[in-house]
Design a protein that fits this description.
The chain is an alpha+beta fold. It is 17% helix and 40% strand. The chain has three helices and ten strands; from the N terminus they run E-E-E-E-E-E-H-E-E-E-E-H-H. The strands form two sheets. The protein has an eight-stranded antiparallel β-sheet.
Length: 136
């Protein structure tokens, strides 16, 4: 199975990017959330916003946002991510989840706003903060 080729790896330390990141006001208990201009790529796609969530200075979750995208782009992302998956999981009708290298990736398409959100992170962390991550 292939590894996802992304510019950030879960488990890396905040110190690796401290000068490239800007803290945001979003809150997840026990975590710091940052954005950075340098991290605007996912695979070969440009994101509109990338949030990196650290717990005790360790990268736990990445939240990627694509704004004003059509459903075709959503399916294109799914097709690319499926190449890396261990297992596909459906939690709900409006988003898909995949296990990739013992981590979870969720892809959500909001048909009203045409926004796509990808949450990639450690399974235990995403389950713990599930509602907060989906509403930020």
């Amino acid at each position: 199975m292939k590894q996802l080729n992304i510019p950030f790896k879960l488990g890396m330390l905040y110190d690796n990017w401290e000068f490239d990141l800007e803290i945001v006001n979003d809150r997840v208990v026990g975590c710091d959330i940052y954005i950075g201009e340098k991290f605007n790529k996912f695979l070969n796609y440009s994101t509109d916003k990338t949030k990196l969530i650290f717990s005790l200075d360790i990268l736990e979750v990445v939240v990627l946002s694509f704004t004003n995208r059509n459903i075709k782009f959503y399916y294109e992302l799914i097709k690319v991510v499926e190449k890396y998956k261990k297992k596909k999981i459906n939690y709900h009708n409006n988003y898909l989840s995949f296990l990739i290298s013992n981590n979870l990736i969720e892809i959500n398409y909001d048909s009203k706003t045409k926004n796509i959100t990808i949450i990639y992170g450690k399974i235990r962390f995403i389950k713990k903060c599930f509602l907060v991550l989906h509403h930020n």
